[in-house]
Specification:
alpha/beta; six-stranded parallel sheet; 12 helices
Length: about 300
């Protein structure tokens, strides 16, 4: 149990939910959106760009097609009643449908900054292709704050006008205080995903991939989006060949829909409160564990 080892620090933790909610109320992101088809950068293209391939722009140039069987007539999946209370669902579904273009046009003369989506820490294995595609699709509606220590990742993302890339920070509060929502689109089987739990402790909802322990790190509160995991071939002895890893093409529409629905003020306010409470409950459970007994049990496994 990570919290038993004090991995998440000691409270009190700042609550960034209210300030994030204020931004959302100013911008009124639509619950549903009729999204335009734009060329998207997917896994294969991202791999080529990070490798410096000249043919990167020739790959995956076809606009992504929305799976109409899973979408309603306004281009978004229906609200999930399990991730929001009945009253929240009813309020959302009663709102008039607006599209992203009209939403962004209405906001263009507003002085307040756009809501910011955060990703910490981004690498190709942690979903760089998904983040780039989302930044392209949601330009003008959301800004992105990306923590990335890899210069190649920064080079790929920097041309996007709605993306700010920063170096890893010692104080996570300096990053989380600037965002409204945290994305964890990892394609790698994470053992946990500490930044997700750290965000929840501060009242910031997260959207996570279904890879590895990320859903568990979301404490059963965070929306979960499916991804196609990294493909790693093996040699004749079954040893993984990391240098030959492949990044499959990804479907970003579940992410777009989850972002739009989560960023509705009525949904966000409820989710922020539940995330913070779940985070603190998680720490309290860890504090009740007998750490010496846990260490003795771990040592016994080595005998």
């Amino acid at each position: 149990h990570l919290s038993a080892f004090g991995c998440f620090g000691r409270g009190p933790f700042q609550d960034f939910g209210p300030s994030a909610l204020k931004q959302l109320e100013q911008h009124r992101t639509p619950a549903h959106a009729s999204l335009t088809n734009r060329p998207l950068v997917t896994g294969h293209t991202m791999q080529a760009q990070l490798a410096g391939a000249e043919t990167a722009q020739q790959q995956e140039s076809q606009p992504a097609q929305r799976p109409q069987s899973q979408l309603n007539n306004c281009g978004a999946r229906p609200i999930d009643a399990e991730s929001a209370g009945p009253e929240t669902v009813q309020q959302l579904q009663s709102q008039p449908v607006q599209d992203v273009a009209s939403c962004c046009e209405r906001r263009s003369d507003e002085p307040a900054p756009l809501p910011v989506l955060g990703v910490l820490k981004l690498t190709p294995e942690k979903g760089c292709s998904i983040v780039l595609a989302l930044a392209q699709q949601l330009q003008g509606c959301f800004d992105f704050l990306i923590v990335a220590g890899d210069p190649k990742v920064a080079e790929v993302l920097s041309p996007q006008s709605n993306v700010t890339v920063i170096e890893p920070q010692d104080d996570i509060d300096k990053v989380l205080s600037r965002v409204c929502l945290v994305l964890a689109p990892s394609l790698w089987f994470e053992s946990w995903g500490m930044v997700v739990t750290e965000a929840l402790l501060r009242g910031l909802p997260c959207i996570v991939s279904d890879a590895g322990g990320l859903p568990e790190a979301g404490l059963g509160i965070c929306p979960v989006c499916p991804v196609a995991p990294i493909e790693i071939p093996t040699d004749s002895e079954g040893t993984p060949i990391w240098a030959m890893r492949q990044y499959p093409k990804q479907d970003i529409w579940p992410w777009v829909t989850a972002i739009q629905q989560t960023m509705q003020p009525v949904v966000f306010a409820d989710l922020s409160r539940r995330c913070r409470q779940a985070g603190h409950n998680f720490l309290e459970q860890g504090a009740q564990l007998e750490l010496p007994g846990l260490l003795s049990w771990l040592e016994s496994l080595c005998d």
